[in-house]
Each structure stands twice: as C-alpha cells, then as structure tokens.
Amino acid sequence: MGAPHLDSEMWESTNPNPPLSTHLSSVIPSEALFSGAEGPAFVVAFAFPVANSAPISGLSVPPAPGDRRRIPSVLRYVRADDGLRGGSQMKVSLLALALLFSADALHSQGPFSVDDALKQLYHKYDPATKTAQWVCTKEQSAEGMHAGWPCTDEYKTVSLQVILTEQVREGDVTRTYLAISAKPADNSDGPYNCHACATATGAAVFSWQGQRWAMESADAAIAFYGGWGDPPRVELVAVGPQKHGLILSWDDLAQGFAASSKSLLVPIGKTINEVWAIGDESDDDDAIDPNDKTESPPHYHSSSTIRFVPVKGVIGSVSDYYNIEVVSRGTSWEGYGHRVKPANWTATYAFRDGKYRMIRKTVSVEVKKPVKPASH
After folding, report:
1. Please, are residues 306 and 323 in contact by the beta-carbon 8 Å criterion?
2. Which H or E run includes 339?
3. What is the pLDDT of residues 317-367, one digit of tens each?
4. Hey, where are the domains in the chain?
5. What is the DSSP string of 106-122?
6. What's the rounded Cα separation, in Å, for the pair 358 and 347?
7. From the CB of residue 369, how many other CB atoms can be counted at a distance below 10 Å?
8. Cβ(44)–Cβ(31) under 8 Å?
C-alpha cells in the first residue's frame, strides 16, 4: 500500500461526505503505518468538525455541506528512516494535537438556549411574552411585613428579565451562569414601580454533560433586591480557583440619605444561596441643608473597596474558596444622638459552613503629623 500524498500545506479528506455532526469533542487522533517506496511512515492525523462551527485556531470551515474538506496542515508525515531520529517533529505533531484538544474544551458544547433554561426554572414560562406563573416564597407568605409582593391572583403573572448569561470554564467542565429578575406583570393596580418594590432575583448554573446542557444548581427566588421595580446590577466573579459566584449591587436614596449594597450568590449543591452581604457606601450629601443650623444632620461619607484573595490550603495548594477583603475609608453616622465616627477599617471574611464569615477586622487610626511653623 503506497503512502498517501501529504504536502506541507494542506491535506484533503478522501471521504467526499464526512459526517457533518462531528464535533471537536470527537477529535480522534490516530497513528497509521504505511509502507511505500520510501519505507514505512507514520502519519499522525486527526478529524475535526467542519459544519456549523466558527473558525478555531485558524482551522477553516467548508463553504457548503458535502464539499471535499481541506484542512490547514498541522499534520506531520514522518518517514521511519528519519522520523525516529526526527522525534522532535513527532513531538511538534503531538503538541499541535494537544492544542486542538484544549480548543475542544471551549468550543465542543452546543448552543445554550435561555428559553429552555427558563422553562426548567419557572412555572408555565411563556417564551413569547417572557412571563411565567409565580410560585410564592415562604417569605412572601409570612404574615405582617414581608419581602416581595402580595401572594394574590393579581400578582400571579410575573415578567422575567435575564440580567446575566455568562459561560466559564471550571476545571474540566464548561458551565453557563444565568441570572434572572422577576416582578409582577402590569395589572389593574398599575406597574410595579414603587420605592419599596424589590424584584425577585433567581439564578441557575448549567453544565455541558452528555451532549446537552444540564441544570446543576438553581433557585428561582433567592431573595428580593433593589427597588422601584428595577433589578440589581450583576457581575460574575471568581470566588475560588475553579468556582464562580454572582455579585449583586443596588443603590437606595431616601430623603437625601444614600446607600449602596452588595450581595454574593454562590452555588451550594443543587441550590444557589446568598453567602455574604455588605453595605459598601453611604452618605448624606443630599440631606445637608447649609441654611439649617439645628435640624440638618452632620455630614458623613464612607466607601469601601472589595477584592477576593487566594488562600493557601493544605500542602501549599490554594483553598477552594478565596477570602474576601474589604477596605473602608471615610466617616459614618448612626443617627441623631450619635456623633460622626471614623469608618477606617479593613475586614477579612473566610468561607466557612456555607457562608462568608468575618475572621479579622483591623481599625486604622489616622495620626496627624504636627505642622512645623514656617521659618522666618
């Protein structure tokens, strides 16, 4: 059997109709031994997807199904007489193949359908209207003051808004994080847009398993956040070397007193929990009346920066969860009858028993250096 022709640039498939469903996840390396006039030769080859895929690492996509495929060559054709002494060429081939497998990790999964995900998360979700039938939470059903809206038929239909969809790689698994805001659809009472009208934030995490997106963790109503019927801002953050969470942020302003808050949501088993919350900024800039010397509150303003810090685990490894470090600067005030106090401190939180808990707080004391009188 003669050795197949392989030039230095391109290799053409001998199969005029290779399967179009082949995905990069089914890349199959093979070694074939041929004998020819020049002696035995090893061919390190691979197959890769060519239909319905975007270009990956310079690999081309065919113009139409059924066409003969041409693939930019990362193949190496090594004759036995110089291939064994040319081991570096074989290493280059295997390295190129390894790079293709790493590309597979990011591109092998199918498209993520938000509508399919919402159908799993909400009762009677309607993709056309982006609405669902709400199932009241225990907090909503409580007597007296409670979070959310009343559990009555008027508020049973809710409007859904996707506020984040993001895909990340965690170890060997590709996951999609989804965050959703729900609020009552407009009804006879009018729109849901009062100051205290917080929306219900839900979230879900899906992983690519067995050629489909499978729900791993989910909660349609983790808690109620924000006001005026607006959802909180949301950002995907790394909370560990191979773990992610959702940081929610929202602001509030009442009679000139402003405050902003943050909450961290993290998948825990099959659900998603709020594991940490903090008020990260406050001031009364708009409550100060310079003409009122008796009733106007004293001025205060504080703000914080937040960062995630890797922690050493056993035998020098990194712990599953990072610590959270908060640095606050400014002043705070607890209300009439209290003095304005410095708010200069650094706090560290560690993940323990399903929550982030404060393990250390250091207060910074501002020391003013005496001013030397100017020499005459």
Report:
1. no
2. none
3. 788 999 999 999 999 998 888 899 999 999 999 999 999 999 999 998 766
4. 10-107, 114-363
5. HHSS----HHHHHHHHS
6. 7
7. 5
8. yes
